[in-house]
């Protein structure tokens, strides 16, 4: 009876909440990984520079190509037309296959995360293997999780409902960043190792429990008329059966699929825009400590800097909690375009204000300004107005990335309709988007450091390392007397901070204006996909 009560309560949870909880188990691990894996190998394991660069280079190649590889392996069975004979596979079976994959790959992701914090091989070898293992399982989990968003629901309303819970749980998972500060200590690593062990155990068990609940709900939908257990637009209630296996007359190769994708106009414009978005997101992450160091270190304490870093991970998900209702009302296209215009407007405003407004800089960099920066509204009317209207460069940029997942699910629908596929290749399309946009992760630090060096003559690789925000070391005191290049470096950081988002916003507004999958066009595509599903159902029943 003790087990029956909690289990019965869990079974009554909405499907959207169960699906969204998977984002919690991903984010509790991934945010800690992003913050600490480099510092752990450099400062704790003392990896040498050559091994570090070899590991990063191999990781770059693996990170770029594993998305389409795993997507193809996952969805190649669906890329067939006119099959002659074989086993029947319904849309419900496709979802079950993805859920089972998450049930296996989620715990393996937790184990690969744990492998970073326990030395078990030479530092260079462990760095390479850990990066590739972790990114491989993270890719598998992300692909299946995102593909479920396209497979569980068809309507924009229901997809935004699912994404709402993803943002809610991702925000909760980002709190692990705040908790990590209490355990991070490079001199005594045991407490942080225990903290990571607890995170990995909680995440692994969470994946097992959530996928079991989700699998039970999908299986229950086949036994109950009307699918009352799913509460997601009924997409799984229909027996969209596909003939798979056996001799397939119309199966296509990867080359044929790529040629079809090359003719998908909206896909091409989207990945062009998303490449700039990925570049900007990682530019903000890579240079966040640099901007704090050279623009705000004289005005904020170490604890405030740590808080700014932590809040910049949580706030994008909280932002989505009010952006997603706007997406339901106005459509994702209009909301994303509005965010691009907002990014452009805030950057121009910051450019006009200059680098000597610490409160506005805090708002622009991480959407938080200490109250002491704004003594009274009347004493600083310009900054006060900005504080009311401004969000932040990083927060809104990261938040836009979360909304673009909904656009990819619409592209999945259009790809299915344009090419008359038997089943949407959701994971493969997400993988192809990642293949084109992942280079933005590499371009961000390379282009940023080159621009800073070109403008100021300051080479970051020839300077003493900066103290990471949130580390146990004290905030570095400004040199006395200041070196001659310090004002130039500060000015260079400021222009880098504002001119990069201005350029990105202009490029994105142009590419986004060429994207046509919204409004009436989107409604037609969704109606055609629904008709294709019904036609397949009728054909099977007739046979």
Automatic annotation (TrEMBL):
It comes from the Eukaryota. Keywords: Membrane, Transmembrane, Transmembrane helix. One of its GO terms (cellular component) is membrane. InterPro entries: MFS_trans_sf, TMEM180. It is a multi-pass membrane protein. The keyword Cell wall biogenesis/degradation does not apply. It comes from Physeter macrocephalus (Sperm whale). This is Transmembrane protein 180 isoform X1. Pfam families: MFS_2.
């Amino acid at each position: 009876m003790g087990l029956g009560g909690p289990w019965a309560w869990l079974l009554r949870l909405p499907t959207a909440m169960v699906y969204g909880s998977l984002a919690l188990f991903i984010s509790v691990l991934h945010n800690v990984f992003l913050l600490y894996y480099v510092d752990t190998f450099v400062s704790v394991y003392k990896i040498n520079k050559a091994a570090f660069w070899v590991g990063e280079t191999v990781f770059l190649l693996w990170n770029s190509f594993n998305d389409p590889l795993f997507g193809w392996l996952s969805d190649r069975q669906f890329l067939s037309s006119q099959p002659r004979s074989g086993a029947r596979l319904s849309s419900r079976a496709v979802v079950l296959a993805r859920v089972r994959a998450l049930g296996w790959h989620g715990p393996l992701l937790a184990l690969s995360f744990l492998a970073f914090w326990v030395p078990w091989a030479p530092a260079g070898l462990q760095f390479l293997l850990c990066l590739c293992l972790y990114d491989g399982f993270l890719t598998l989990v992300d692909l299946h999780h995102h593909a479920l968003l396209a497979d569980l629901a068809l309507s924009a309303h229901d997809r935004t409902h699912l994404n709402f819970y993803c943002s809610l749980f991702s925000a909760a998972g980002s709190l692990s960043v705040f908790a990590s500060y209490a355990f991070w200590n490079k001199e005594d690593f045991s407490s942080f190792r225990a903290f990571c062990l607890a995170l990995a155990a909680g995440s692994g068990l969470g994946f097992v429990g959530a996928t079991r609940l989700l699998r039970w709900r999908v299986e229950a939908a086949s036994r109950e008329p009307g699918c009352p257990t799913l509460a997601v637009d009924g997409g799984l209630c229909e027996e969209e059966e596909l003939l798979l296996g056996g001799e397939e007359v119309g199966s296509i190769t990867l080359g044929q699929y790529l040629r079809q994708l090359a003719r998908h106009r909206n896909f091409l414009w989207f990945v062009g825009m998303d490449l700039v978005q990925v570049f900007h997101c990682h530019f903000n992450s890579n240079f966040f400590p640099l901007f704090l160091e050279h623009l705000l270190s004289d005005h904020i304490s170490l604890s405030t800097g740590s808080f700014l870093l932590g809040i910049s991970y949580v706030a994008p998900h909280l932002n989505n909690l009010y952006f997603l209702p706007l997406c339901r009302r106005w459509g994702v296209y209009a909301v994303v375009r509005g965010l691009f215009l907002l990014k452009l407007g805030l950057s121009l405003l910051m450019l006009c204000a200059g680098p000597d407004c610490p409160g506005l800089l805090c708002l622009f960099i991480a959407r938080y300004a200490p109250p002491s920066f704004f003594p009274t509204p009347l004493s600083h009317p310009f900054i006060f107005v900005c504080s009311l209207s401004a969000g932040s460069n990083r927060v809104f940029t990261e938040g836009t990335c979360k909304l673009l997942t909904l656009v990819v699910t619409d592209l999945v629908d259009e790809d299915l309709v344009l090419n008359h596929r038997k089943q949407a290749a959701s994971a493969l399309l997400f993988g192809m988007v990642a293949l084109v946009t992942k280079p933005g992760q590499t371009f961000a630090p390379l282009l940023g450091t080159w621009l800073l060096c070109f403008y100021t003559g300051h080479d970051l690789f020839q300077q003493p390392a900066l103290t990471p925000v949130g580390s146990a070391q004290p905030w570095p005191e400004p040199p006395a007397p200041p070196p001659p290049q310090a004002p130039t470096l500060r000015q260079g950081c400021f222009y880098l901070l504002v001119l990069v988002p201005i350029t990105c916003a202009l490029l994105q507004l142009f590419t986004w204006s060429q994207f046509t999958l919204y409004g009436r066009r989107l409604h037609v595509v969704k109606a055609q996909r629904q008709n294709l599903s019904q036609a397949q159902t009728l054909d099977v029943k007739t046979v």
